[in-house]
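Notes from the 1:1 (GR / supervisor)

We went over the backlog. Supervisor wanted to see one worked example end to end before approving the batch request, so GR pasted a single chain during the call. The sequence is below; no edits were made to it. Supervisor asked that the structure be written out right there so they could see what the output format looks like.
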Amino acid sequence: MRILIMVAHPDDIDFGSGGSVATWTGDGHEVSYCLVTDGDAGGFDEGISRPDMAVLRRKEQTAAAAILGVTDLHFLGWPDGRVYVTHELRRDLTRVIRTVRPDRVVTSSPTRNLRSMYGSHPDHTAVGEAVMCAVYPDARNPFAHPELLADEGLTAHTVGELWITHMGEGADTYIDTTDAYQRKVEALLAHESQTAHMEDLRGRMWAWGRVQAKAAGFGEDRLAEGYLVLDTR
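Structure output shown during the call:
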């Protein structure tokens, strides 16, 4: 199976789906990443210029992806903190979908979570909505974004299923990530500009995984990551 994960920032995948990615690649699935921004507005070192931060975060994401078994990364370079659902963004996401031709697309929720400010970053919700538009109707419609076919030879592609991350109580599918916990943490530590200051990162990720595992009905020693799965055939 080909799986394409499309998110706003470097480290979004590793926080939300790092255990799932390690599990999927371990099972032999092909996983690709699409990062809409370079995360140039992130980090806590004011001595690093924003262009240099963008370069650094691409390097960190590439290193983190390798830890989880992923080498196919698509960086779109949109400005961090200024992502909106536009026709141009939908086109760029459609381009990646038609290039990778995945069976499954994974993205962030397009709706604001009123119980979690961190889970409702405007870039996350904008990317979630734009990805949903790219999956349906854009990528499968040969008449959408005609320049992709005329200029780049990218034919229409229908994605079979769409997985939405960070759904909390709205999740209906859970991946047991217990055995992948250590690799998830290692991937997050590769994002040094974002995680070096965090106290007890391992404990936070363990606690979050336990909440998901409890919702899934897994055993007390298990960890999980939850999704809402949509049939998009």
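Supervisor's comment: The first strand starts at residue 2 and ends at 7.
Batch request approved.
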